[in-house]
Write a structure and sequence with these properties.
- The complex is a heterodimer of chains A (394) and B (104).
- Chain A contains 13 helices and 15 strands.
- Chain A has 394 residues and is of the alpha/beta class.
- Chain A folds into two domains: 245 residues, Thiamin diphosphate (ThDP)-binding fold, Pyr/PP domains (Rossmann fold, 3-Layer(aba) Sandwich), CATH 3.40.50; 136 residues, Rossmann fold (3-Layer(aba) Sandwich), CATH 3.40.50.920.
- A seven-stranded mixed β-sheet of chain A has the order 3-2-4-5-7-6-12, sandwiched between helices. In chain A, strands 9-11-10-13-14-15 form a six-stranded mixed β-sheet, sandwiched between helices. A two-stranded antiparallel ribbon of chain A has the order 1-8.
- In chain A, helix 1 runs parallel beside helix 7.
- Chain A starts with a strand and ends with a strand.
- Chain B has a two-stranded antiparallel sheet.
- Chain B starts with 41 loop residues before the first strand and ends with a strand.
- The chains are: A alpha/beta (394), B mainly beta (104).
- The interface between A and B is medium-sized, with 23 and 15 residues.
- The structure holds iron/sulfur cluster (2 copies).
- The site of one iron/sulfur cluster (SF4) has 13 residues of chain B, from helix 1.
Chain lengths: 394, 104
Amino acid sequence: MAIRERMSGNEAMAVAMKQINPDVVAAFPITPSTEVPQYFSQFVADGVVDTEFVAVESEHSAMSACVGAQAAGGRAMTATSANGLALMWEVLYIAACSRLPIVLACVNRTLSGPLNIHNDHSDSMGARDSGWIQLYAENNQEAYDNLLMANRIGEHPDVMLPVMVCQDGFITSHKIENIELLEDDKVKAFVGEYNPKYKLLDKNNPISVGPLDLQAHCFEHKRQQAQAMMNAKKVILEVSEEFYKLTGRKYGLFEEYKTDDADVVAVILNSTAGTAKYVVDQYRAQGKKVGLIKPRVFRPFPVDEIAAALSRFKAVAVMDKADSFNAAGGPLFTEITSAMFAKGVFGPKVINYIYGLGGRDVKCSDIEVVYDKLLDIACTGKVDSVYNYLGVRE
Amino acid sequence: MSSKKELKTIAPDVKWQDITEGGVMPYAGNAELFKTGDWRSMRPVWLQEKCKQCLLCYPVCPDTSILIDESGKRTDFDFDHCKGCGVCVKVCPFKAIDFVEEGK
Ligand code: SF4
Ligand code: SF4
């Protein structure tokens, strides 16, 4: 029997970490992810985990300590947000290229500046090319579930890549909602042991990690890293299937909500997808054929699947809680439109909305603007503006 | 320099499918296969007759290029790896190491 509880998204992530019982957690506090290591250090103090908790002096050190611990042969985890993630930047790339499946709980917060502690996706979106797998979560349950699956995905021999599990700062990280937890022994059996091929603490087989890698071999390592990310898609689906059998909770590369006969859809990450589901229900009650696609896996990007899914609609709005400042559209928009182009999907009209930056509240009325616009485009076939800001005063 | 054990390394023509993940070097001691001697512009010359075998030069060489024989005495330099940094020249209290321009 699963355990019915109620807790915040941060506590849910900390509980997942407790059940995973990693060898090392190295973390530095930053709003809104602070509670994750805070709860976790309490578990350490209470002796309910075997983890070595390293209270580092910065996020750069947090990720560096994780790299060392993981290279030694242990499981390492951390949590951060916004500028904390930015301070980890160079080490994020080193973790990925060194093929160290570290797991990071990313509680999304806008990356300064301007200085702001609230939610958008500019932190993790900035790290999208660092070589980390990225999973996104609508609520505390998905944040917990994704975190439980993260080790299995990252540590798979065909993958060996670090995994970032993202949820929305404050909106889900601090909101207390119902949740279903797995029993400790079931998590332990599901997550299993970490047995990497190479580990620094294997004294009978000495290795060097992170050597100088020049023109002769660096390119081959990058090609191999690209393959690992390609392999990750299959592994994510396999692990998710196993998780479904264990919990009854089904996860794919993205979730489709009321899309079967939809004319138009919005594509939305994380908590705002929940708001959009409510609006979809309202519009459906009025007979309007609207739907929602909520990506769960952003890295690897499900190019084939998302292009095929979107090919069925007349109009699509891609919603970005981060701007790329490329004067053309946000990161999710450019990924989706390039996926559609590459796969020869030219039917749907696609527009982009930048929304909710710096924690600007996203209300049902905002989502209604999007669906109204999409229904208008589906009707007229005309797009007057591709790159738009939603809910900004103008 | 002859080595007692067989040294394995990552081949220069290895394909991406076969290279170790993340650049891990699973074979110890193979820096020996990387010849750094041709980086040298200055060359240390061991003056055997002045040498007192005090061995002060041996530990300072950053490239382990001062070779010691079975009886614990220094012999000539390992010119496959000596980079010509001159540290041993400075350290020798008996001026038993000359330092000359390479190629002269
Ligand atoms: S320091 Fe000079 S004298 Fe001493 S062993 Fe080396 S070369 Fe010989
Ligand atoms: S010159 Fe430098 S590298 Fe060469 S033997 Fe002397 S200390 Fe070693």
